[in-house]
Design brief:
Layout lengths: L1 H23 L4 E7 L8 H11 L3 E7 L2 H9 L5 E4 L8 E9 L1 E6 L18 E4 L8 H11 L6 E4 L3 H9 L5 E4 L10 E4 L8 E8 L5 H17 L6
Parallel strand pairs: 1-2, 1-3, 6-7
Antiparallel strand pairs: 3-10, 4-10, 5-8, 5-9
Helix pairs in contact: 2-6
């Protein structure tokens, strides 16, 4: 019985050693990635698919968070990578731009047949659907700042908790929204997406990670993300 148990223990030790080596080599293990809702369009899904195909033994734990939650989770080491909009500012965090894109209007489909150019100030008396509701400041405040540069503050504002809720409100005619251009890839009933003329500073999607994270999984993901982002940068989505 002692001999049998000893053999089992040695086999487990050998197996553990092999697993640790694979993790150290970056070919097995777990990578925790969290992202803002609008990151589910554009280049990020392509990166996730490519990473899974290249590293099938690495488990990807994916979750959606707002920027404040991303910062907290990253600082507290609950996640390895935060895909944020805009970047996370903290001395412990390193950030790099994943993609830049213009802003577009998300409008109820009653605007579908309008032919004349759109200007943001055209909607100064319209209801703006902004997100997220909290915490503030947030992407909502960024959109309000863009409006201020155009010389107005939206007369009516409806705050949605997240991107999906905001788009649902636009689709039923509650108001309009200003979103990253990659969101227009998600065609949904009740909404049309249109470019607008005038002040358009665009928006950046960023990769954020702790400076002291030396995981080979992290560096493998970053390298692949940079490669795919460069390949897809034939121009901003419109």
């Amino acid at each position: 019985m002692l001999l049998e148990r000893a053999r089992e223990i040695l086999e487990r030790v050998d197996q553990t050693e092999r697993e640790v080596m694979r993790i150290g080599q970056g070919v097995a293990g777990r990578l925790r990635i969290a992202f803002v809702g609008t990151a589910t369009f554009g280049v990020l899904p392509n990166i996730i698919r490519a990473f899974r195909a290249a590293h099938p033994d690495i488990e990807l734990a994916l979750s959606a968070m707002n920027n404040a939650e991303l910062r907290r989770a990253l600082i507290q080491r609950e996640i390895d990578i935060a895909v944020a909009r805009p970047s996370i500012e903290d001395a412990e965090v390193k950030a790099e731009t994943l993609m830049k894109e213009p802003l577009v209007l998300a409008l109820p489909d009653s605007y579908a047949n309008r032919e004349q150019p759109f200007h943001l100030a055209d909607f100064k008396n319209a209801t703006f659907v902004l997100f997220p509701r909290r915490p503030r400041p947030s992407y909502a405040d960024y959109v309000l700042d863009v409006c201020k540069v155009d010389g107005f503050v939206p007369a009516l504002q409806v705050m949605a908790q997240d991107y999906l809720t905001a788009m649902s409100l636009v689709s039923v005619g509650v108001g309009i929204s200003v979103v990253p251009a990659s969101v227009s890839e998600n065609q949904r009933p009740g909404i049309v997406y249109r470019k607008y003329e005038g002040h358009n500073p665009g928006t950046e999607l960023s990769l954020n990670y702790r400076r002291d994270n030396r995981s080979p999984h992290l560096f493998g993901f970053l390298e692949l993300a940079r490669k795919i982002a460069r390949a897809s940068h034939s121009g901003p989505p419109v």
